[in-house]
Structures are given as C-alpha cells and as structure tokens.
Design a protein that fits this description.
about 65% helix, elongated, 434 Repressor (Amino-terminal Domain), 7 helices, single chain, mainly alpha
C-alpha cells in the first residue's frame, strides 16, 4: 500500500477552514460530524490526500467525544446473537446444528442457559466473528 504525500500548505488551509479541535458539546459534535459526512459523500477515491487526513482526524475527534459521553457497557451475548440472527434473516431453527438440539438453542435464546465456550466457538465460526462476542 502506497502512502500519499500530504501537501502541508493545502492541509493547513483545510485545517484553518475546518478548525478541528477536541469536541466539547453537541453543537461542535454536529459541526464536525456534518463536515465528516460531506467528505465521506465524496467517496474515498475522490478525496485528496489532505482531505483523507482531515477525515481521519475528524473521525478520531468524533470517536473521542462519543467514548467520553456515551460509554458502552458490556455487551450481552444473547442480544448480540439475536441481532446477528435478525440481520441475516435466521430463525432459531437455523441454529439447532450449532447447539446440537432445539432445546438447548431455545434455552440459550430465552436466557435460561448461558452460551458455553464450545458453542461460542461454533457461533463465531458460523457468523465469522470473535468468540468473545458470545461469552
């Protein structure tokens, strides 16, 4: 992968116009998100190297604000499984082979039984995800 050279003068002009800084409130967040959105609409191939770096910086600032103001709690393995099933149009029946029985699948999905490590590995393979999501 080739790294594009940044024209410091062009990048400086972009920075002066955008004035990126740590985001302190929702209004600033909205401004930075709108600018990032306009850059993303151009498409990755159409962005200049300087615009790409600005977009990367905006992404870091937005992520930092989100992390500080909307921290995510620990993920619920059954909720993750349910979301993945819905996204792929799957039903409980589709998971029977992974759980080795419809009773076990039902107990897991109804939160009467935890997902075992071996089941988590099978789910990870099936959904092409990390087993840690299901533990």
């Amino acid at each position: 992968m080739t790294v594009a050279t940044i024209d410091e003068r062009k990048y400086g002009k972009l920075l002066a116009k955008a004035l990126p800084r740590p985001i302190a409130n929702q209004d600033e967040y909205d401004q930075m998100a709108a600018l990032a959105g306009r850059l993303m609409e151009k498409g990755e191939q159409a962005l200049s190297p300087e615009e790409g770096k600005l977009l990367e910086l905006l992404g870091l600032l937005i992520e930092d604000y989100d992390d500080r103001n909307y921290p995510l709690g620990p993920a619920d393995p059954v909720a993750i499984l349910t979301e993945l099933m819905e996204a792929r149009g799957l039903t409980q029946t589709d998971l029977w082979p992974l759980f080795r029985s419809k009773g076990t699948a039902s107990e897991v999905l109804n939160r009467r039984r935890a997902i075992s490590k071996s089941q988590a590995k099978k789910l990870a393979e099936f959904f092409h995800a990390s087993a840690e999501l299901f533990i």
